[in-house]
Amino acid sequence: MQTSHIKNRDMIMQVVLFVITLGIYALYWYYSTLKDLHTANGKDEGAGIWALVMLVPILGYFAYWHYASEFSEFTVGRYPTLVMFLAWIVFAPIVWLLVQMELNKAAAGGVSQPAAA
After folding, report:
1. Residue 6 falls within a domain, yes or no?
2. Three-class secondary structure of residue 4 per DSSP
């Protein structure tokens, strides 16, 4: 799994940017972190399209599911897709926190992956 492209993002600054931009930063965060997850998972899917889908009522749930499945794959199932999807619906900030903690860990070189067979 390639993680050299992942940037460390400060959680406090993210909250500040979220407030200053009246929530628009959340869309940028979704896009940029999904792009990081796609690259780490060895996929070439369009994070931009998924970010736009997220904005469409009802279809947004598909975007949440996609993001949750990419994150689950990135963490080797430590965070199951269904749990993360439900977290998006019930209390989205927990997803933000968990994803950013794992990505920051990867940026620091601390991703724990199973040994190659």
Report:
1. no
2. coil
Distance (Å, rounded) from C-alpha 113 to C-alpha 1?
8
The answer to the question of residue 24 being in a domain is yes
Tally of domains in the chain:
1
Q: Is the pTM of this model over 0.70?
A: yes
- Using one digit for the tens of pLDDT, what is the confidence trace for 13-24? 999 999 999 999
Q: Is residue 3 part of a domain?
A: no
34 close to 51: Cβ distance less than 8 angstroms: yes
Report residue 69 as tokens.
């499945």
Burial zone of 117 (CB within 10 Å; 0-12 exposed, 13-18 middle, 19+ buried): exposed
Position 2 in a domain: no
How far separated are the first and last CA of the chain, in Å rounded? 14
Tokens of 49: 């399209």
